[in-house]
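tool=predict chain=A
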Amino acid sequence: MKKRDNYISWDEYFMGVAALSGMRSKDPNSQVGACIVDDNNRIIGIGYNGFPNGCSDDELPWAREGEYLDIKYPYVVHAELNAILNASTSVRGAKIYIALFPCNECAKAIIQSGIKHVYYLSDKYAETDSVKASKRLLRMAGVEYTQLNLSDKSITINF
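tool=predict ok
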């Protein structure tokens, strides 16, 4: 008997972990997860978008539009930052897998933490100033980024 040949790749595995993490998000509009991996393909950090620890997701707003203090943006911690903050060890030299290209604020955290490669699926906000600034910062800091094309892939988990 020979080994199975239809197993998932490392990129599929880590992006799958990021996607599964995103399913923990309570955000009604955007569920984003992140997975940080070291050089030995070991997961060292996972996160998803949500409010800071100890801040009730029943009391803070989930709206996308309205007065600044009545929308989610001043309160939500993005998946990338949560993964960095949740990391079990230094993320210096690591890779991060995320569904969406990081915003400029997350790019700064990625750079400062020493992550060297960003793998992402979607760049749907590419024309926003936030993502343009993000790409500029990442390029300047020598952080590589690669869009993965996994659209022909599907992973099903049954419990």
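The two ends are 28 Å apart (CA to CA). The mean pLDDT is 95.
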